[in-house]
Amino acid sequence: MDPFIILVIFLIMSIIIAFAIGANDETFSVVWGSKTLNMKQALIIATIFAILGAVILGAAVSKTVGQKMLYIELSTAVVLTILISTAIWLILASALSLPISTTHATIGAIIGIGMFIGGGTGVNWPIIAEMAVWWMLSPIIGFVATYIAYKIIHKYHISKLNGFEEYERSEKNYSYVLLIFICITAFSRAGNDCSNAVGIVAGVGDLQIDLLLLITGLSLACGVVILGRGVIKEVGSMTELRPSTAFAAQIPTAAILFFGTMQGIPLSGSHMLVASLIGLAVARSAPYDKKGFIKIIIIWLLTFPISAFLAIALFFPISAMFP
After folding, report:
1. Sorting pLDDT into bands at 50, 70 and 90, what band is 180?
2. Domain coordinates of the chain in residue numbers?
3. Which of 14, 165, 174, 237 is the most exposed place for a label (fewest CB within 10 A)?
4. How far apart are CA 28 and CA 184, in angstroms?
5. Among positive and negative, which fits the CA dihedral 294, 17, 137, 65?
6. Helical H runs in the chain?
7. CA torsion 197→78→92→5, rounded to 10°?
């Protein structure tokens, strides 16, 4: 097949995946849940930082995904298999308003196809192990850091406020700080998540990474605006939020995502944020949507094997079409 046509197919699939990632992005759930912003305002800001984050921060993580994870040849069939299997799982999860880890969906597909073609030596296991440590630590850090942050804020500030007017003024100030941290998170999240759409394509080396990142940023933004409301509402409704409590939950997510993205480490923003919200609920002794939380955990656990087996199953027809 004409190489130009193959590149066009790669690009189309990357756009579809980036759109699905944007549709599954719950970054702005805390500002919606705390009523800091309404949905329209949240989507406007999400659009801006989706584009900026992908273009400015996306290269490092994209290179990790595209160039360091597989020891097999990145043939047309391999790249398309990873892209299509990731897209299918993302779109299905977004349709069900499930905040899955787009990173895990992509890495699961990469591991599946790498092991299927190359056996145990087809995948760069040291890199996978390094990322796995981050995947396990980041939600734990999110839970603990949010728990501590809430306790400090409540003990040394909120509990010392006098009267409703002073409390409302304090919450308004927290809403401003929360917006700053949300913008940092959205900026970092876009830079990290774009690797799931273009990393494996960038590894082929036939398209300029800057062009890919720009297209990805625009596609992320479209996904958030067109389909992102469902996941934002799902996560934003897990527990009661105010600007001060949402700020406590956002601190670790913003810090870890920014650091990980700058270091080129693929991370799951979904894991961190949901763990932080649970940490917040526990710190407040407040109720949270336990059924929704269990559903999210189950989906997270299933993402790796589903993506891996989906990639293996799709490889047969795709390799027949693109030998």
Report:
1. very high
2. 3-321
3. 165
4. 11
5. positive
6. 3-23, 29-33, 39-67, 76-95, 102-118, 125-156, 163-202, 209-227, 229-236, 243-262, 269-284, 290-321
7. 70
Q: In Å, how far are 72, 127, 188, 250 from 220, measured between CA atoms?
A: 29, 26, 13, 21
Answer for the pair 79, 204: CB distance below 8 angstroms, yes or no: yes
Mean pLDDT of 224-239: 85
Question: Counting beta carbons within 10 angstroms of the beta carbon of residue 124, is it exposed (0 to 12), middle (13 to 18) or buried (19 or more)?
Answer: middle
Q: How far is CA 37 from CA 49, 65, 121, 181, 283, in A?
A: 16, 34, 49, 14, 24
For the record, the structure tokens of 274 come out as: 């949901």
Residue 44 zone, left/alpha/beta (φ > 0; ψ -120 to 50; rest) = alpha
Q: How many residues are present in the chain?
A: 323
Contacts of 212 (CB under 8 A, 6+ apart): 11, 14, 62, 198, 201, 202
**pLDDT at residue 314, rounded to an integer:** 93
| The two three-digit tokens of residue 160, written as one number | 């010392």
Tokens of 12: 């189309």
Residues 293, 11: Cα–Cα separation, whole Å: 35
Is pTM, for the whole model, over 0.85? Answer: no
Structure tokens at 308: 């891996």
**Residue 206: what pLDDT?**
54
Write out the two tokens for 266.
């693929």
- Which pLDDT does position 115 carry in this prediction? 92
**Which string of DSSP letters, residue by residue, matches 174-193?**
HHHHHHHHHHHHHHHHHHHH
**What is the distance between the alpha carbons of residues 120 and 136, in angstroms, rounded to a whole number?**
23
Cβ atoms of residues 87 and 20 within 8 Å: yes
Place of tokens 């130009």: 4
Strand partners for 288: 239
